[in-house]
Amino acid sequence: MNEYTLSQQYALVGLDGQDSIHITTAKSAVCRGIAAAKILERLILSDHLDLEAVKEELEAEFKEIRGIGRKEAHGLETEMAEVLKAKGVLDEIPDILACDINYSSMNMDLRTYRSDGTEYQRIVEGVRAEVLEDGAVTLECVCLVWLLRESGCIHDIFSVQEQERLSARMIELAEQDPVVRVVWDSDIYRWTEKLSQQLLSAKKNIFKNPYMEGVNLLFPFLDRRQAVFIDFVVLGTNVAGRRLAMMTYLSEKGHYVEEVKNGSETLLKVDNYYYRVFPMTRVYYKIPVQGANLVPVYR
Q1: Can you give the residue range of the structural domain that contains 275?
Q2: pTM for the full model?
Q3: Helix%, strand%, coil% for the chain, nearest 5
Q4: Domains in the chain: how many in total?
Protein backbone atom coordinates (compact mmCIF):
# COMPACT_ATOMS: atom_id res chain seq x y z
CA MET A 1 0.00 0.00 0.00
CA ASN A 2 1.37 3.39 -0.97
CA GLU A 3 2.02 5.94 1.74
CA TYR A 4 1.50 9.59 1.00
CA THR A 5 2.49 12.89 2.53
CA LEU A 6 -0.23 15.26 3.73
CA SER A 7 0.01 17.32 0.53
CA GLN A 8 -0.22 14.21 -1.65
CA GLN A 9 -3.26 12.87 0.22
CA TYR A 10 -4.93 16.24 -0.09
CA ALA A 11 -4.11 16.58 -3.79
CA LEU A 12 -5.53 13.11 -4.57
CA VAL A 13 -8.87 14.31 -3.21
CA GLY A 14 -8.70 17.97 -4.24
CA LEU A 15 -7.50 17.54 -7.84
CA ASP A 16 -9.86 14.67 -8.60
CA GLY A 17 -12.50 15.79 -11.08
CA GLN A 18 -10.87 19.17 -11.72
CA ASP A 19 -10.08 20.67 -15.12
CA SER A 20 -6.51 19.66 -15.97
CA ILE A 21 -6.04 22.30 -18.68
CA HIS A 22 -7.83 25.50 -17.72
CA ILE A 23 -7.75 27.64 -14.59
CA THR A 24 -10.97 27.54 -12.55
CA THR A 25 -11.92 29.02 -9.20
CA ALA A 26 -12.20 25.56 -7.66
CA LYS A 27 -8.80 24.42 -8.94
CA SER A 28 -7.16 27.68 -7.80
CA ALA A 29 -8.43 26.92 -4.29
CA VAL A 30 -6.91 23.43 -4.52
CA CYS A 31 -3.55 24.86 -5.61
CA ARG A 32 -3.55 27.19 -2.60
CA GLY A 33 -4.35 24.14 -0.50
CA ILE A 34 -1.34 22.26 -1.89
CA ALA A 35 0.90 25.20 -0.93
CA ALA A 36 -0.66 25.31 2.55
CA ALA A 37 -0.27 21.53 2.98
CA LYS A 38 3.47 21.78 2.36
CA ILE A 39 3.73 24.49 5.01
CA LEU A 40 1.74 22.39 7.48
CA GLU A 41 4.05 19.44 6.82
CA ARG A 42 7.03 21.59 7.73
CA LEU A 43 5.60 23.54 10.67
CA ILE A 44 2.76 21.55 12.27
CA LEU A 45 3.72 17.92 11.59
CA SER A 46 7.38 18.36 12.56
CA ASP A 47 8.87 16.80 15.68
CA HIS A 48 9.74 20.14 17.30
CA LEU A 49 6.84 22.53 17.64
CA ASP A 50 7.13 26.02 19.12
CA LEU A 51 3.45 27.04 19.11
CA GLU A 52 3.88 30.82 19.27
CA ALA A 53 6.55 30.85 16.59
CA VAL A 54 4.52 28.49 14.41
CA LYS A 55 1.36 30.59 14.79
CA GLU A 56 3.20 33.73 13.71
CA GLU A 57 4.83 32.01 10.73
CA LEU A 58 1.58 30.37 9.65
CA GLU A 59 -0.17 33.73 9.57
CA ALA A 60 2.58 35.19 7.40
CA GLU A 61 2.75 32.17 5.07
CA PHE A 62 -1.03 31.93 4.67
CA LYS A 63 -1.23 35.62 3.86
CA GLU A 64 1.17 35.00 0.97
CA ILE A 65 -0.80 31.95 -0.15
CA ARG A 66 -3.99 34.00 -0.44
CA GLY A 67 -2.17 36.14 -2.99
CA ILE A 68 -0.79 33.32 -5.15
CA GLY A 69 -1.08 34.15 -8.84
CA ARG A 70 -1.95 31.94 -11.79
CA LYS A 71 1.64 31.19 -12.76
CA GLU A 72 2.62 30.03 -9.28
CA ALA A 73 -0.62 28.07 -8.89
CA HIS A 74 0.03 26.31 -12.21
CA GLY A 75 3.54 25.42 -11.04
CA LEU A 76 2.20 23.87 -7.82
CA GLU A 77 -0.43 21.92 -9.79
CA THR A 78 2.03 20.63 -12.38
CA GLU A 79 4.63 19.58 -9.81
CA MET A 80 2.10 17.67 -7.70
CA ALA A 81 0.34 16.11 -10.69
CA GLU A 82 3.65 14.78 -12.03
CA VAL A 83 4.48 13.19 -8.67
CA LEU A 84 1.08 11.48 -8.41
CA LYS A 85 1.16 10.36 -12.05
CA ALA A 86 4.58 8.82 -11.43
CA LYS A 87 3.06 6.87 -8.53
CA GLY A 88 0.32 5.64 -10.88
CA VAL A 89 -2.53 7.15 -8.87
CA LEU A 90 -3.52 10.11 -11.05
CA ASP A 91 -4.34 10.33 -14.74
CA GLU A 92 -6.13 12.64 -17.17
CA ILE A 93 -9.35 11.70 -18.92
CA PRO A 94 -11.95 13.49 -21.07
CA ASP A 95 -14.03 15.81 -18.89
CA ILE A 96 -17.61 14.63 -18.43
CA LEU A 97 -18.58 18.19 -19.36
CA ALA A 98 -17.42 17.40 -22.91
CA CYS A 99 -20.46 15.09 -23.14
CA ASP A 100 -22.84 18.02 -22.57
CA ILE A 101 -24.84 19.08 -25.62
CA ASN A 102 -23.40 22.61 -25.36
CA TYR A 103 -19.83 21.33 -25.70
CA SER A 104 -19.95 18.00 -27.57
CA SER A 105 -20.29 19.63 -31.00
CA MET A 106 -17.62 22.29 -30.43
CA ASN A 107 -14.57 19.99 -30.55
CA MET A 108 -13.16 21.62 -27.41
CA ASP A 109 -10.31 19.91 -25.58
CA LEU A 110 -11.80 19.40 -22.14
CA ARG A 111 -9.85 17.14 -19.81
CA THR A 112 -9.97 16.43 -16.11
CA TYR A 113 -7.90 14.74 -13.44
CA ARG A 114 -9.02 11.35 -12.12
CA SER A 115 -7.51 9.89 -8.96
CA ASP A 116 -7.16 6.15 -8.49
CA GLY A 117 -10.51 5.01 -7.09
CA THR A 118 -9.05 2.67 -4.46
CA GLU A 119 -6.62 5.25 -3.09
CA TYR A 120 -9.23 8.00 -3.23
CA GLN A 121 -11.70 5.92 -1.20
CA ARG A 122 -9.00 4.85 1.27
CA ILE A 123 -8.11 8.45 2.06
CA VAL A 124 -11.72 9.66 2.21
CA GLU A 125 -13.01 6.77 4.32
CA GLY A 126 -10.00 7.06 6.63
CA VAL A 127 -10.80 10.71 7.32
CA ARG A 128 -14.50 9.98 7.78
CA ALA A 129 -13.84 7.14 10.23
CA GLU A 130 -11.35 9.12 12.29
CA VAL A 131 -13.51 12.22 12.61
CA LEU A 132 -17.00 10.76 12.88
CA GLU A 133 -16.24 7.86 15.22
CA ASP A 134 -15.29 8.16 18.86
CA GLY A 135 -11.59 8.07 19.58
CA ALA A 136 -8.45 10.07 19.04
CA VAL A 137 -8.02 12.28 15.97
CA THR A 138 -4.49 12.70 14.68
CA LEU A 139 -3.07 16.12 13.91
CA GLU A 140 -2.51 15.03 10.31
CA CYS A 141 -6.23 14.24 9.98
CA VAL A 142 -7.12 17.65 11.44
CA CYS A 143 -4.87 19.32 8.86
CA LEU A 144 -6.40 17.29 6.04
CA VAL A 145 -9.95 18.17 7.10
CA TRP A 146 -8.97 21.84 7.30
CA LEU A 147 -7.48 21.72 3.79
CA LEU A 148 -10.65 20.08 2.46
CA ARG A 149 -12.71 22.77 4.19
CA GLU A 150 -10.69 25.58 2.66
CA SER A 151 -11.09 24.24 -0.89
CA GLY A 152 -14.80 23.42 -0.73
CA CYS A 153 -14.35 19.62 -0.78
CA ILE A 154 -16.19 18.91 2.49
CA HIS A 155 -19.56 18.52 0.73
CA ASP A 156 -18.28 15.65 -1.41
CA ILE A 157 -17.14 13.72 1.66
CA PHE A 158 -19.60 14.41 4.48
CA SER A 159 -23.41 14.47 4.40
CA VAL A 160 -25.37 17.40 5.82
CA GLN A 161 -25.90 15.55 9.11
CA GLU A 162 -22.25 14.50 9.21
CA GLN A 163 -21.15 18.09 8.62
CA GLU A 164 -23.00 19.08 11.80
CA ARG A 165 -21.12 16.36 13.69
CA LEU A 166 -17.85 17.36 12.02
CA SER A 167 -18.24 21.01 13.01
CA ALA A 168 -18.98 20.12 16.65
CA ARG A 169 -16.08 17.65 16.76
CA MET A 170 -13.55 20.11 15.38
CA ILE A 171 -14.67 22.85 17.78
CA GLU A 172 -14.29 20.36 20.65
CA LEU A 173 -10.80 19.38 19.49
CA ALA A 174 -9.81 23.03 19.09
CA GLU A 175 -10.87 23.73 22.68
CA GLN A 176 -8.73 20.86 23.94
CA ASP A 177 -5.60 21.34 21.81
CA PRO A 178 -4.06 24.77 21.09
CA VAL A 179 -2.31 23.42 17.97
CA VAL A 180 -5.63 22.28 16.52
CA ARG A 181 -7.10 25.68 17.39
CA VAL A 182 -4.34 27.49 15.49
CA VAL A 183 -4.99 25.39 12.38
CA TRP A 184 -8.80 25.40 12.53
CA ASP A 185 -8.99 29.18 13.08
CA SER A 186 -6.79 29.88 10.05
CA ASP A 187 -8.00 30.43 6.50
CA ILE A 188 -6.60 30.76 2.98
CA TYR A 189 -9.92 31.82 1.45
CA ARG A 190 -9.95 34.90 -0.77
CA TRP A 191 -12.38 37.73 -0.03
CA THR A 192 -14.11 37.23 -3.39
CA GLU A 193 -14.87 33.61 -2.47
CA LYS A 194 -16.15 34.69 0.94
CA LEU A 195 -18.45 37.18 -0.79
CA SER A 196 -19.74 34.44 -3.10
CA GLN A 197 -20.39 32.30 -0.04
CA GLN A 198 -22.45 35.08 1.58
CA LEU A 199 -24.46 35.58 -1.61
CA LEU A 200 -25.02 31.83 -1.92
CA SER A 201 -26.21 31.64 1.68
CA ALA A 202 -28.69 34.46 1.10
CA LYS A 203 -29.88 32.86 -2.13
CA LYS A 204 -30.40 29.49 -0.45
CA ASN A 205 -32.50 31.13 2.26
CA ILE A 206 -34.83 32.55 -0.39
CA PHE A 207 -35.57 29.32 -2.25
CA LYS A 208 -34.62 25.66 -2.16
CA ASN A 209 -32.06 24.92 -4.85
CA PRO A 210 -32.16 21.23 -5.92
CA TYR A 211 -28.55 21.47 -7.12
CA MET A 212 -27.53 22.35 -3.56
CA GLU A 213 -29.01 19.28 -1.90
CA GLY A 214 -26.40 17.87 0.46
CA VAL A 215 -24.68 21.23 1.00
CA ASN A 216 -24.44 22.66 4.50
CA LEU A 217 -23.23 26.24 4.42
CA LEU A 218 -21.46 25.79 7.75
CA PHE A 219 -18.52 25.12 5.43
CA PRO A 220 -17.22 26.96 2.35
CA PHE A 221 -18.84 25.79 -0.88
CA LEU A 222 -17.19 25.96 -4.30
CA ASP A 223 -18.91 24.61 -7.39
CA ARG A 224 -16.51 21.75 -8.19
CA ARG A 225 -18.94 19.97 -10.53
CA GLN A 226 -21.70 20.94 -12.96
CA ALA A 227 -24.89 19.38 -14.23
CA VAL A 228 -24.52 17.79 -17.67
CA PHE A 229 -27.24 17.31 -20.31
CA ILE A 230 -26.47 14.47 -22.71
CA ASP A 231 -28.63 14.20 -25.81
CA PHE A 232 -29.58 10.80 -27.18
CA VAL A 233 -32.62 8.98 -28.52
CA VAL A 234 -33.37 5.41 -27.45
CA LEU A 235 -36.70 4.46 -28.97
CA GLY A 236 -39.03 2.00 -27.30
CA THR A 237 -37.17 1.83 -23.98
CA ASN A 238 -38.15 2.52 -20.39
CA VAL A 239 -36.21 4.60 -17.85
CA ALA A 240 -33.92 1.67 -17.02
CA GLY A 241 -33.10 1.26 -20.70
CA ARG A 242 -32.23 4.91 -21.08
CA ARG A 243 -30.06 4.72 -17.97
CA LEU A 244 -28.21 1.75 -19.48
CA ALA A 245 -27.69 3.72 -22.69
CA MET A 246 -26.28 6.58 -20.64
CA MET A 247 -23.86 4.24 -18.85
CA THR A 248 -22.70 2.74 -22.14
CA TYR A 249 -22.16 6.18 -23.65
CA LEU A 250 -20.10 7.44 -20.69
CA SER A 251 -18.03 4.23 -20.62
CA GLU A 252 -17.19 4.69 -24.29
CA LYS A 253 -15.97 8.20 -23.43
CA GLY A 254 -13.43 6.77 -20.97
CA HIS A 255 -15.28 7.03 -17.66
CA TYR A 256 -15.75 4.38 -14.97
CA VAL A 257 -19.51 4.06 -14.54
CA GLU A 258 -21.64 1.98 -12.19
CA GLU A 259 -25.06 2.06 -10.55
CA VAL A 260 -25.12 2.54 -6.78
CA LYS A 261 -28.17 2.06 -4.55
CA ASN A 262 -28.86 4.94 -2.19
CA GLY A 263 -31.88 4.04 -0.12
CA SER A 264 -34.88 3.90 -2.45
CA GLU A 265 -33.09 5.57 -5.38
CA THR A 266 -30.34 4.48 -7.74
CA LEU A 267 -27.45 6.87 -8.37
CA LEU A 268 -24.90 6.82 -11.13
CA LYS A 269 -21.29 6.76 -9.95
CA VAL A 270 -19.07 8.29 -12.62
CA ASP A 271 -15.38 7.90 -11.73
CA ASN A 272 -15.30 9.03 -8.05
CA TYR A 273 -18.48 11.14 -8.03
CA TYR A 274 -22.20 10.53 -7.84
CA TYR A 275 -25.01 11.84 -10.05
CA ARG A 276 -28.77 11.62 -10.31
CA VAL A 277 -30.11 10.90 -13.79
CA PHE A 278 -33.23 12.68 -15.02
CA PRO A 279 -34.45 11.62 -18.50
CA MET A 280 -35.97 14.70 -20.11
CA THR A 281 -36.49 16.72 -23.26
CA ARG A 282 -34.93 20.14 -23.78
CA VAL A 283 -35.52 22.67 -26.52
CA TYR A 284 -32.46 23.87 -28.41
CA TYR A 285 -32.94 26.39 -31.21
CA LYS A 286 -36.69 25.63 -31.09
CA ILE A 287 -36.01 21.92 -31.64
CA PRO A 288 -36.97 19.41 -28.88
CA VAL A 289 -34.01 17.20 -27.95
CA GLN A 290 -34.35 13.96 -25.97
CA GLY A 291 -31.68 13.14 -23.44
CA ALA A 292 -30.88 12.99 -19.76
CA ASN A 293 -29.65 15.46 -17.18
CA LEU A 294 -26.84 14.34 -14.85
CA VAL A 295 -27.08 16.35 -11.63
CA PRO A 296 -24.20 16.21 -9.11
CA VAL A 297 -25.06 14.59 -5.79
CA TYR A 298 -23.36 15.85 -2.65
CA ARG A 299 -23.27 13.51 0.30
Answers
A1: 228-296
A2: 0.86
A3: 55, 15, 30
A4: 2
